[in-house]
Amino acid sequence: MAALNIKKGSTSHSAYDLRDFHSDVESSHTLAVLVDNEAGVLARVIGLFSGRGYNIDSLTVAEVDHKGHRSRITIVTRGTMAVIDQIKAQLGRIVPVHEVHDLTLEGQSVERELALFKVAATGEKRVESLRLADIFRANVVDSTLESFVFEITGTPEKIDAFAELMRPLGLVDVARTGVAALARGV
Amino acid sequence: MSRQMTGAEMVVQALKDQGVDTIFGYPGGAVLPIYDAIFQQNDIRHILVRHEQAAVHMAEGYARSTGKPGCVLVTSGPGATNAVTGLTDALLDSIPLVVFSGQVPTFMIGTDGFQEADTVGITRPCTKHNWLVKDTDKLSEIIHQGFHVATSGRPGPVLIDIPKDVQFATGTYTGPKTARVDHYQPRMKGDIEAITKLVELMETAERPVFYTGGGVINSGPAACQLMCELVDATGFPITSTLMGLGAYPASGKNWLGMLGMHGLYEANLAMHGCDLMINLGARFDDRITGRVADFSPNSTKVHVDIDASSINKVVTVNLPIIGDVGHVLEDVLKIWKSRGRKVNKAGLAQWWAQIAEWKAVNCLAYDNSGSTIKPQYALQRLQALTKDRDRYITTEVGQHQMWAAQFLGFEAPNRWMTSGGLGTMGYGFPASIGVQIAHPDALVINVAGEASWLMNMQEMGTATQFRAPVKQFILNNERLGMVRQWQQLLHGERYSHSWSESLPDFVKLAESFGWKGIRCSDPAELDAKIVEMLEYDGPVLFDCLVEKHENCFPMIPSGKPHNEMLLAADAEAFASGATLV
């Protein structure tokens, strides 16, 4: 094995793991992918990520143009710049993919996510959860004597912050939609 | 033009309208209506295979030797799953195929019906695109789109899954001219600014090299011609991947031979030492680059590729040009000529002197024997006895494949069919039948190893039935030679399951299918027997018993850079122990 002189720290005995020519600084990117709304298109996109070992932090998809049969997929992914470039190029060659936009690079964009939080509490904790919801501009969309369901919209960071505050107050369930994003301006 | 017909008739009509003359396939319950439509016409020839994997490899052979898409018809379930290896092979080697599969009727999909498989799900990652057609009215348009997608941009296989009720139902046929193929239009022209920059680099480079691949052949004969013109006019050396052999003639004066893991010494060292690397339609495969961190450390790298995802995938390049190689070369030539056809003559002369020193190493030298046929010798003789004929060569996968690439010379594109990316043992024999079906009068030889060849040996019946006079030149070492070589060099000579036990008597096997069988074990008889094979009017199984423990050199051990390649002499530089892929 000495003859091959494999560097220590390579993750396995494979040539593929010996490359370290790219910067290993990872960053989060929000990609908007416009696709034909046809059977299997989401599977193609997801299959690309799983098949090539890329990460998906968040994914939302819905039809945005009924007449034109177009859907918009918003993907938040993480990787080195080389990996992000590969992801975009790989997405671009899927046949029903029309456009790929890197909202993180292409100027400013707005990102929003909707979440539902169920908080079970009574007494002072129940009141505190209502107060904090008011500060975060969350709405109460369901209420029992022992629980609230809050609806909150905002950036993923805001929703994370709200979750942190709710946890000690009796958070029992969370549902998040994932990020929807649009570039600013026209 | 639109008219009413059944889905099954649409398949046949669409094939005719696409100019298809041959389809390789195997019938079954879910494609019976299409087979019925094929029965009632004479324009499209159906080649009945013995296994669906072979049908796809035949279509690949057909496609690679003609430049036209290959067509396949298989049934649902096992028919489709058997086609998966062929589809993956075609995807990795960018071969245009249109594969039709039958499917259970739409109302049965999802019920685990008899011979039901999620074919579009299974083939999604191994096709360029695929469709499940649920409406007969959409079928013909999807077929035309399928041909468009398979053949435009970077070619690849597509699959169209057609439920049986869609085949039976009547609908409106759409011709190829009215079918919508609008949004999938890959960019053909390269960016002129980038091309001008490339020309500037070419004018001053001291140690340039062209590194070319299958993309040049896929771009077409015109692209190959433009490339030869550019190479000869500039006087730059040229090397090629396994996939690109034949685009530049092996007898050409600038030819360095194949590069890569078993490439030629001069080709790999030229890649390592160059100051300008011009990649035309190749993709920096790991078999080419060796250790990426040390790959050609001092060069400016230019990459011409039609597929944007190939750029910077493995090797970061300085100047990417996205476009069709043929179109880009046309612009390169135009701009280079208009700027006065400048090259760095002094630098080039020194560079060629250096290359001459590397060539003098004679890296393909081997110890010949008077008593045993060396595989290299067998291929040298095959080359000598066939080089004046317009021959087509296919191969299986392994040592014989690398020796064929080293010792056979290819003078024209589309004459060399081998499984490069996927490395599919069992590819060569069916591929040779596909080539022969496309070129009935040509000399078609499959250079094989006995182990690979056995993987699709059932196709002997196909060759006999369709009178395909293919020559199967088996370098029989009774070993899985490449596996054995790695075990010898890297796994402490523990030969785990790498020998061919219980081989058939190939001569008797040949005769049982109505073929001619020839066996040769004596170097002195080799020429006469090869001539006997070439002169026989029909399929021949040539059992060439060769040296059992010959190793294939030169070799860049996986994970090593180009300049650390091993020639036969320093094989002991290997230490024992597990290693890379």
What is the compact description of this entry?
Chain A is α+β, with helices and mostly antiparallel strands. Chain A has helices spanning 41-51, 81-92, 123-135, 156-170, and strands at 27-36, 58-65, 70-79, 97-102, 109-120, 139-143, 147-154, 171-176, 180-183.
How would you describe this structure to a colleague?
Chain A is an alpha+beta fold. Chain A contains four helices and nine strands, in the order βαββαββαββαββ. In chain A, strands 5, 6, 7, 8 and 9 form a five-stranded antiparallel β-sheet that branches. In chain A, strands 2-3-1-4 form a four-stranded antiparallel β-sheet. In chain A, a hairpin with a 3-residue loop joins strand 6 and strand 7. Chain A starts with 26 loop residues before the first strand and ends with a strand. The N terminus of chain A is likely disordered. With 581 residues, chain B is an alpha/beta fold. Chain B is built from 23 helices and 20 strands. In chain B, the strands form four sheets. In chain B, strands 3-2-4-5-7-6 form a six-stranded parallel β-sheet. A six-stranded parallel β-sheet of chain B has the order 11-10-9-12-13-14, with helices on both faces. At the A-B interface, helix 1 and helix 2 of A face loops of B.
Defining traits:
heterodimer; A: 186 residues; alpha+beta; five-stranded antiparallel sheet; four-stranded antiparallel sheet; 9 strands; 27% helix; 37% strand; disordered N terminus; B: 581 residues; alpha/beta; six-stranded parallel sheet; globular; disordered C terminus
Q: What form of chain A results from the Cα inertia axes?
A: elongated
Terminal CA distance of chain B: 54 Å
Residue ranges of chain A: pLDDT <50 for 5 or more in a row?
1-21
**Estimated share of beta-strand residues of chain A:** 35-45%
* Helical percentage of chain B: 25-40%
Number of helices of chain A: 4
Largest interface: A-B, 31 and 39 residues
The Rg value of chain A, from CA coordinates, equals 21 Å
Percent helix among the residues of chain A? Answer: 25-40%
User: Structural class of the secondary elements of chain B?
Assistant: alpha/beta
| DSSP helical segment count of chain B | 23
Outline the biggest β-sheet of chain B. Answer: 6 strands, parallel
Tell how many strands the DSSP assignment of chain A holds: 9
Sheet of most strands of chain A = 5 strands, antiparallel
pLDDT under 50 segments of chain B (min length 5)? Answer: 575-580
Report the portion of residues of chain B in β strands: 15-25%
Helix and strand element order of chain A: EHEEHEEHEEHEE
User: Strand arrangement, largest sheet of chain B?
Assistant: 3-2-4-5-7-6
- Cα gyration radius of chain B (Å): 24 Å
